Amino acid sequence: PVIAFKGKPRAAANGALEIEYTLTDDYGATAARAEIEPLDADPAASPVYPLPEFALNLPSRASKDHSALTSRNITEHPLSGTKVTVTLVAEDAAGHIGKSPALEMVLPARPFYNPLAAAIAEQRQIFALDSRKMPEALQYSRAMTLRPEETIPDITQFLLIKSAQTRMAIAYDDAAFRDTADYMWQIATGIEDGALSDAERRLREAQDALSKALEEGASDAEIARLMQELRDAMQNYLSEM
């Protein structure tokens, strides 16, 4: 199989990773995937989660250039927002495997507009990428709750964070680390989503995506696509208002 990137992977307005590629094979491709690995990772690191899975759609028969597009949201994975390498892999009916050259990029991350939610997500990422750094993440969390009357006025949010600290302190194996990381993601997204309606969040995401594309000199077609996403998000927001 011959598989190759068709342009650079990009982030959709909702943070999903979009990969466009071409795939050809004499025997007929049966499966394809993107292998995502951390760039310059510490070989001794002990990650809490396995590497993200990213299955690729096969090109349709109607595609003249054998191209396809796959979009998946993997922002929950702690690698989001970090530098990674992405390699496309395809398999055919004869058992042959083809790979593309590795491409370096920063994996799209979910934006957090609420500072408290962003801090919790960052603490989670610290130990989720390397469980040996749990003491560092716990210290960061405890520092955040030293003066809760100034930083965490909502008593429910304060109690959730304190319960997370307890889980962080007693976690001792892979299952406990994953359970704690899952719990902290729920807290972070719960705080974030509680402060924003879905329509307002989509509008901000669309604004950020368009702004980033303009700064990076994206193509006219990409700008037009993002402009339409922004118009749709604005219409949904106005309808909600």
What is this structure, in a nutshell?
With 241 residues, this protein is an alpha+beta fold.
Chart the SSEs and their pairings.
Elements: E1 2-5, E2 10-11, E3 17-24, E4 29-38, E5 67-72, E6 83-92, E7 97-99, E8 103-106, H1 115-129, H2 134-144, H3 148-151, H4 155-170, H5 174-195, H6 198-215, H7 220-240
Antiparallel strand pairs: 1-3, 2-3, 3-5, 4-6, 6-7, 6-8
Give the DSSP E fraction (strand runs of 2 or more residues). 15-25%
| Most strands sheet | 4 strands, antiparallel
Distance between the termini: 51 Å
**Strand runs, count:** 8
Q: Helix and strand succession?
A: EEEEEEEEHHHHHHH
Q: Helix count, per DSSP?
A: 7
Alpha-beta classification: alpha+beta
The backbone outline, from C-alpha atoms, is: globular
Q: Report the oligomer.
A: single chain
- Write down the overall mean pLDDT: 88
The unreliable regions are: none
Range of helix content: 40-55%
Query: Nearest-angstrom radius of gyration?
Result: 21 Å
How would you describe what is shown here?
The structure is a single chain. The protein has seven helices and eight strands. Strands 1, 2, 3 and 5 form a four-stranded antiparallel beta sheet that branches. Strands 4, 6, 7 and 8 form a four-stranded antiparallel beta sheet that branches. The longest helix is centred in the last third of the chain and has 22 residues, at 174-195. The N and C termini lie far apart (51 Å). It is globular, with a radius of gyration of 21 Å. By secondary structure, the chain is α+β, with helices and mostly antiparallel strands. The model has no long low-confidence stretch (mean pLDDT 88). It is 44% helix and 20% strand. A hairpin with a 5-residue loop joins strand 2 and strand 3. The protein has helices at residues 115-129, 134-144, 148-151, 155-170, 174-195, 198-215, 220-240; strands at 2-5, 10-11, 17-24, 29-38, 67-72, 83-92, 97-99, 103-106.
